[in-house]
Amino acid sequence: MIQAKQELLAALGEAIHSLSPEAALAPAFESPKQASHGDLACTAAMQLARPLKANPRALAEQLIQKLQASPAFERWVSAMEIAGPGFINIRLKDAAKQAVVAEVLGTGSHFGDRPATGKHVMIEFVSANPTGPLHVGHARQAALGDAICSLLKTQGHDVTREFYYNDAGVQIATLAHSTQLRLKGFKPGDACWPTDPDNPESKKFYNGDYIQDIADAFLRKETVKADDREFTASGDVEDLDGIRQFAVAYLRHEQDLDLQAFGLKFDNYFLESSVYANGQLEAAVQRMIDSDKTYEKDGALWFRSTDYGDDQDRVMRKREGGFTYFVPDVAYHVNKFGRGYTQCINIQGTDHHGTIARVRGGLQAQNLGIPQGFPDYILHKMVTVMRNGEEVKISKRAGSYVTLRDLIDWTSRDAVRFFLISRKADTEFTFDVDLALKQNDENPVFYVQYAHARICSVIRKWAEQGGDEAGLAGADLSLLTAPTEAALMLKLADYPRMLSSAAQDLAPHDVAFYLRDLSGAYHSYYAAERVLDQAPELTRARVALLAATRQVIRNALAVLGVSAPEVMAREAAA
After folding, report:
1. Which of 166, 192, 268, 299 would you call most buried, defined as having the most Cβ atoms within 10 angstroms of its Cβ?
2. Is pLDDT above 80 for 141?
3. Rounded CA gap, 155 and 280, in Å?
4. Strand-pair partners of 346
5. Which residues lie below 8 Å from residue 75, measured CB to CB, with a gap of 6+?
């Protein structure tokens, strides 16, 4: 059907051009909301009506006449009709729908993929400073970022996953100080260690049990190794710099364990300290000064960020010295641009919204030819965790928040990934632990995975009866004419278009929605038609359809980083 769609789109493009040579209207089909309206819909007549000053239904009639004369429509289309103000509803011949089964089986895990584009894309996400375990916000970033990377790879792009973090500064100093106090026998709540959140001094301490774990390991003079560093503890409680380096390495190792539990590996780790050490920050600041986009006021250096859409100018260098946090961000993104990436995408929480204008403005002030709007941002909203009908806010391990590891331990990697990707990033999301544990159709990830497992079960039974999957390529697909078969094949054929659209919109939740719909189409088919114990050729054709459906479910789950189990148990009905 992919070939059929391509030929039909080409014919539609020629028909549009013949009606309006000046029209910049790309040929496109939509999926009708109701199956009774046909297999494809075209809105070109309504889009052309205004510029051509013509009646859309009359234009639709002209389009149909031209389309009917094309070899592609003659080959693949059984009927066309005008509906409403000028929709063209198109009904495909059975052969057009049936062709998708052979296309899926022929391309396998690459069904839906596009050829290499030569485009280099960097996705920066998670980017947690090594001051504690990864929290549920990082979990949402991990799910979004990894899925977007996979989506873009299906479209032929070369993708790099990057993790950026600060290994110095105030937060790291707080980490070292908190660890040193634990080493000296103090704990949260002692006179020297305020924990009342209303006390500003409490922000100078980290309270989680993981701080004591770091202190204990430091005293044992352990060596810790993370993906990007290794350090051996001295065991000296007065060695504050050694404590700092050990704590950073220890927590980077812990974060790596979190990411391994999530099934995520980064291609590159970038340290904020490197933009200082290599002189990149000073060079970026000097370019901003040279571009006349800075000024001195009250002993501080200011950036004219209002020139770039910010609501007020921003301090770059404070009166007491030291740069504000957006300045190294500018230097870091100059570095990204210099590495030759065609597109850079940052995935962050909505609390970073205010930094976008000043970072982009700072990049424009570099006068390096960096495109406006560089980098792209995807901002996600908060995640609320519910368990046993109540909101969960505190993890003993972290001290004040639920961690990524908590979610995985309470449910599963698959549930965490699927749930956190199942809503648009800019919507708040409630992670229901109890729902994630259910083994029935209420649980969306179970619903999809069970469809895959059920197909595997049917194909195993067919093989036990003497069926051979190697022979499915020769199945007589013309026998697939049942309405539920047609609906399932149309849904399979929509997979490449959905992938392309989801990648273009950076919307991996579309993949989760598609999987629900595809699984629903399969479950409806399974309930309506018998696959086994039919005439041999009909059984083989239906097994071929199931094998194609299994493959597309696998492909889509792989984009989300979710497994496709072949055997699953289902809860007994109440």
Report:
1. 166
2. yes
3. 33
4. 124, 377
5. 4, 7, 93
Q: What confidence tier does 230 reach under pLDDT thresholds 50, 70, 90?
A: very high
What does the angle CA 467 – CA 477 – CA 525 come to, to the nearest 5 degrees? 80
pLDDT in tens, 249-266: 999 999 999 999 999 999
| pLDDT per position as a tens digit, 315-367 | 999 988 889 989 999 999 999 999 999 899 999 999 889 899 999 999 999 99
CA atoms within 13 A on the CB side of 263: 17
Planar angle of CA 297, 300, 301, nearest 5 degrees: 90
Q: What sign does the dihedral 433-438-441-446 (CA atoms) show?
A: positive
Largest pairwise CA distance in the chain = 88
Q: Which residue has the tokens 């809105």?
A: 43
Find the distance separating the first CA and the last CA of the chain, reported in whole Å.
42
Average pLDDT of span 381-387: 94
User: Which one, of 265, 184, 258, lies nearest residue 218 by Cα?
Assistant: 184
Closest C-alpha to 358, from 307, 305, 419: 305
Instruction: Quote the crossing angle between the two packed helices 169-183 and 240-262, to the nearest 10°.
Output: 110
Task: Examine the pLDDT at 168 and tell me if it is beyond 80.
Answer: no
Supply the Cα-derived Rg of the chain in whole angstroms. Answer: 29
Query: ∠18-24-28 over CA atoms, to 5°?
Result: 80
Residue 210: phi and psi, rounded to 5, are -65, -25
Backbone angles phi and psi of 452, in degrees to 5: -65, -45
What 3-state DSSP class applies to 321? coil
184-223 core/surface letters (b: 16 or more CB in 10 A; e: else): eeeebeeeebbeeeeeeeeeebbbbebbebbbebbeeebe
**Residue matched to tokens 């490197």:** 274
pLDDT, tens digit, 9 for 90 and up, residues 530-560: 999 899 999 999 999 999 999 999 999 999 9
Contact criterion met (CB below 8 Å) for 222 and 232? yes
pTM, full prediction: 0.90
Tokens 């409490």 sit on residue: 202
Q: Which uninterrupted H or E stretch holds 543? A: helix 536-560
Helix (H) or strand (E) holding 231: strand 230-232
Q: Is the pLDDT of residue 247 over 70?
A: yes
Report residue 304 as tokens: 């004219």
* Residue 482, CA atoms < 13 Å, CB-side half-sphere: 17
- In Å, how far from its chain's centre is CA 499? 12
In 54-93, which residue ranges form alpha helices assigned H by DSSP? 56-68, 71-76
Per-residue b/e over 79-91, b at no fewer than 16 CB within 10 Å? ebebeeebbbbbe
Q: What is the pLDDT of residue 170?
A: 85
Q: How many whole angstroms separate alpha carbon 537 and alpha carbon 543?
A: 10
For residues 463 and 566, what is the distance between their CA atoms, to the nearest angstrom? 15
